[in-house]
Amino acid sequence: MITVVGTGTGAPLPADVLAGAALVVGGRRHLDAAGLPADAERVVLGPLAPALDVVERHLEKAGRVVVLASGDPGFFGIVRVLAERFGPELLDVRPGVSSVAAAFARIGLPWDDAVVVSAHGRELRTAVNVCRARPKVAVLTGPGAGPAELGAALLPGPCPPGTSPADAPGGRVLVVARALGSGQERVERVTPAEAAARDWGPDVSVVLCLDETRALGGVRTVAGPPAGPAGWALDEGRFAHRDSMITKFEVRALALARLGPRLGDLVWDVGAGSGSVAVECARLGAAAVAVEKSPDGVARIRANAGAHGVDVRVVQGSAPSVLAGLDDPDAVFVGGGGRELPAVVDACARRARRTVVVAMAALDRVPAARAALTGAGFTCDGVLLQSSRLAPLPGDVTRLAATNPVFLLWGERTPASSEGVAQ
C-alpha cells in the first residue's frame, strides 16, 4: 500500500501516518519537516522515474510506502503518476488543502468559477492565453514559468503603431501566494509589470490572475470555466457594424468551425471590421486579438466586445506590418481583400501554429491567397458560399433573398511544417 499524504498548506501531518513506514518519498522541505522513522529509507523527489523504481522495489517486499506531497495530491499532483504506475487500488490518499483553495481563501474569494491551469513543466503560453481570456484564473507555476515570466507575458509588449498598453485586455492583477501554510507565508497583489520586475524565488505556491471587477461572478451550478455559449454564428444584428461591413453569419459559422477556437488558444482576427469573428472566438474561450486600421472600426470592436462581455485586445494598424509585435497565434482569420491580401496571408501563415482561414469576395484574389498558404506548408481547401435567406414580401408571403457570394479558403498546418513555427 502507498499512503499519499497532502501537506504543506497549513494542515498538520497526522501523527501516525509515518509509523512503520519502510520508505518515505517527498520534496526536501516536506521530508525535513516530518519526523521520519529512524529505519525508514528516504527519497527526495526530483526526477520521478528513479523514485518510482524505489517505490516498486519496496512494494515487492510488502514494505509500507508513504509519499508526502503538497496540498491535494490528486489535483495536478502525484496521484495520477502513482495510479498509472501501480494502480489506484494500491493508493490510500489523504488530501490536504490545495494551494489553489488556500490562495483564494486568503483573499476571501470563492473559486468554484475559477479556471485552473498548470504551467509546471508545460508551455507557459497556454496559461497566458487563459489569463487573457478569463477573469479568474489560478496558475500553478514552475521553474521558468513563475510570476515574473507570467507578468512579462501578460504585458502588451512593444506596441504596434497607433496602439498603447491600454489596448490590451485590462484590469488584471496578479496575486502571488508564497510558502502557503508556513511561517514565511506571503500573499501579495501586484500588477503584471511589477511581477515581471521581481525575483520571486523558489517558494511560490500559486499565482492568481484576476479581473477584480468580475472576481465574484454569480451563483454557479457547474464548477470550473463557464459553459460554452448556447449558440454561435450570431446574427449580424447582434453586432454594431458599418454599412453591412460584417462577416455574414453563414460565413462565420464555417470560419469558426475551421478555426476551432478553444480555451488556451490565441486567435487573430485580421481586418476585423466589426470584430464579429474575434468576439465569437472569445465567447468560445480563446484569447482574441482584433487587428483593424480605421479608428472608428477600433471603437466599434471594443463596443462589440463589451456588449458580449468578452476580452478582445484591439490593435490599430495596417497588416502585415502591424502583426510583427503580436504573439504567435494558434489560428488566424483574415477578412477583407485588397492588393495587400497575399502578403497578409503569407505573414499570418508563417506565424500561425495550426490554421489560417481567409474570406474573400473577389474570386481573383483566391489563387494568390492559396499560393501563400501552400507556400508556408499548409494543406489547403476552400468553398464558395452562396446562401439565400427568407425575406418577407407584401401579402404575407416570403421570398428568398440572395446574399453576396464569399469564397472561404482555409489552410491547416501539417505536423512536418510546424517545425519551422516559432514555439
TrEMBL record:
GO terms for molecular function: protein methyltransferase activity. It holds the Pfam family TP_methylase. The keyword Zinc does not apply. The keyword S-adenosyl-L-methionine applies. Keywords: Cobalamin biosynthesis, Methyltransferase, S-adenosyl-L-methionine, Transferase. Residues 267-334 form the Methyltransferase domain. CDD domains: AdoMet_MTases (cd02440), Precorrin-6Y-MT (cd11644). InterPro entries: 4pyrrol_Mease, 4pyrrol_Methylase_sf, 4pyrrole_Mease_sub1, 4pyrrole_Mease_sub2, CbiE, Cbl_synth_CobL, Cbl_synth_MTase_CbiT, Cobalamin_biosynth_MTase. Pathway: Cofactor biosynthesis; adenosylcobalamin biosynthesis. Residues 1-194 form the Tetrapyrrole methylase domain. One of its GO terms (biological process) is methylation. This is Precorrin-6y C5,15-methyltransferase subunit CbiE.
